[in-house]
Structure formats: C-alpha cells, structure tokens
Amino acid sequence: MKKIITNFLNDIKKEIENTKKEKSIKKQIPNLLTLTRGISPIIIIPTLLSNNIKLAIIELIIFALTDLFDGRIARKYNCVSEFGIKLDCVCDKIFVIGLIIPSITKYPILLINLLLEFAISYINLQSEAKNNKPKSTINGKVKTVEVDMGAPILEATKIPVSSSAKIEDKKVKAEVKVKNKKIELTCVSMGNPHAVTFVNNIKNFKVAEYGPILENADIFPEKANIEFVEVVDKNNIKMRVWERGSGETLACGTGACSSVVASRLNGYTDRKVNVQLLGGNLEIEWKPNNHVHMTGPAVTVFKGEWIDE
Predict the structure, then answer these.
(1) What was the pLDDT predicted at 144?
(2) Using N-to-C axis directions, what is the helix angle for 29-38 and 53-76, rounded to 10°?
(3) Rounded-to-integer distance, Cα 198 and Cα 183, Å
(4) Is residue 126 very low, low, confident or very high in pLDDT (cuts 50, 70, 90)?
(5) Residue 307 is assigned to a structural domain of this protein
(6) Phi, psi values for residue 85, rounded to 5°
C-alpha cells in the first residue's frame, strides 16, 4: 500500500512540475473537473443523510456530468495525460463509494458492493504499482487498452533502407540533405518503415516542408513514415508524424512505437515513455522480451446498428 501511495504522490508531483514548465493552467481543467468527483462524497453524503432527495439528485447529475466532460475537454485541447487517466479511475471509485455509504444502514446488502469497490480499487492500484495498467473501472467502462505491437525490426534490408545507411550500436542511421541541411535519421520498422529525427522545438518545426522530402528520399525504396521528435525528459517525448502517402496526421501508433525505440537506442529516454501527439497521448513501453507495448485511452468513436438484409 505504501508503494501505491508513493507512486500516486510522485505522479501528482510530476504533473505539477509539467504544469509549471508549460505554464498552461488550461491543460489542467480536465483534471480539476475529475477532482470534483473525488470530493463529491463530502457534499452528497450529508445531503442524502438529511433526506433531501431532490437536492441529492441535482448534485448527482452535476458530478456525473464531470465524468462526461473531463475526457472530452482533454481530447479537444490535446491534454490527455497518463496522470489524468489514473485520476479518473480513482475519482470514479470515490464517487460510487460516496453514493453507497449513506444507504448501507437502510440496505445492508450494499455493504458487499462497497467491499467489492474497495477490492477492485486495491487490485487496480496494485497492478499500477507493478507497472501494469488497470484495464477498466466499474460497470465495465474501459478506460485504457494495451496492445502488443510486436518486436521492432532493426535490420536495414528489412526496414527497408538502402545500403548507404550506417549501423551504429544496433542503430540504423541515415542522413538526408534537405535545403543544404543534413537531417539525421534513426530507422526502425514496426511492420512498416519509419525514420525518426530529433528536433528542439516540435511545435514550430516545419513538418509540411521537410516531411515529403524525407518520405521520398532515395534511401527508402518503399518510402517511409517520418517522425519528428522533441525529447522532454527520460519519460516524455513530443511527436509529430508525416505518414507516407497521407501527409501529417494527428497520431500514428507504429510511429509512436518507433519513436520510443529510436529514443531509447540513442540514449535519450528510458524504455517506458509517454508520447504526446497532436491527437492525444500514448504510453509506449519497449519490454525486456523485445516487444513494444502501446497503451492509450479507450473512447467511443461512433455507434451503429448492423442490419441484416
């Protein structure tokens, strides 16, 4: 339990440091909305105990709406964070527990539900402490999904990259001249070819200018997806991607994996890294078994109905 609490406190500390570094309070609005669910029992429990049911229903609706809007706002303003996902899981549990407690005296059977909530929370937090993601919260609401993306390919002929590429400590390195400037690339394949270059300011980098030239460089016989990466620290990078045949896109899963592999090979990051993309955040981990795992938030994209003719 001590390790769980320590990890969560460290996450809070990192989030505060990142906020100070980026000087953006706006990015914390989703987390503040989530926190209101965490403190909701302080307001709801006294209302329920006083039998003011109408007010309790209004409070319940308001706090429930925070669960609807925190994620939407985070995705809209590209500030989805691993800390926010964890905080959402914890506050969801606190919210439900706060609803159950006042009813236990009248309906003792709810005590079983309460104990189950504590048990599920503890298991999920234990899983988090061991660096395994809790996959869902209560009511089957999936928060994150982890995918095994396979092992990275680091052989030039299999990526593929032309014979002009250099091999340096397992790194497949290449250079492309763009407007009298040499661009260094670390080449990786995750089933499709990627070339990663590291830049100082990803926000202002001219991706649309450099992307198509690098994509179609002669050293890539099948063209390549180009990742532009800014290293924030050992556990965080920012990435923009120019996908072959498509141009710049909001995100790329294999690109995020390739970027972390390249960052690790160059000694810039650890094996477990949070990747900040235009379309949201992904957590990538290059496991000891050489497989790369990708974890990200699960959201509803669309709903439909299958009609048999």
Answers:
(1) 81
(2) 150
(3) 9
(4) low
(5) no
(6) -65, -45
Which residues are CB-neighbours of 159 under 8 A, at least 6 positions away?
A: 153, 172, 187, 188, 189, 193
What whole-number distance in Å separates Cα of residue 269 and Cα of residue 234? 4
Q: What is the DSSP string of 178-247?
A: ETTEEEEEEEEESSSEEEEEE-S-TTT--HHHHHHHHHT-TT-TT--EEEEEEEEETTEEEEEEEETTTE
Same domain, 78 and 197: no
Residue 79, class by beta-carbon neighbours within 10 Å (0-12 exposed, 13-18 middle, 19+ buried)? buried
Residue keyed to tokens 């000891």: 288
Q: Answer whether 0.70 is exceeded by the pTM.
A: no
Q: Is the pLDDT of residue 184 over 80?
A: yes
- pLDDT confidence of 227, banded at 50, 70, 90? very high
The answer on 112 and 35 residing in a single domain is yes
Residue pLDDT, tens place only, 263-298: 999 999 999 999 999 988 999 999 999 999 999 888
- The domain in which residue 70 lies consists of 2-7+16-142
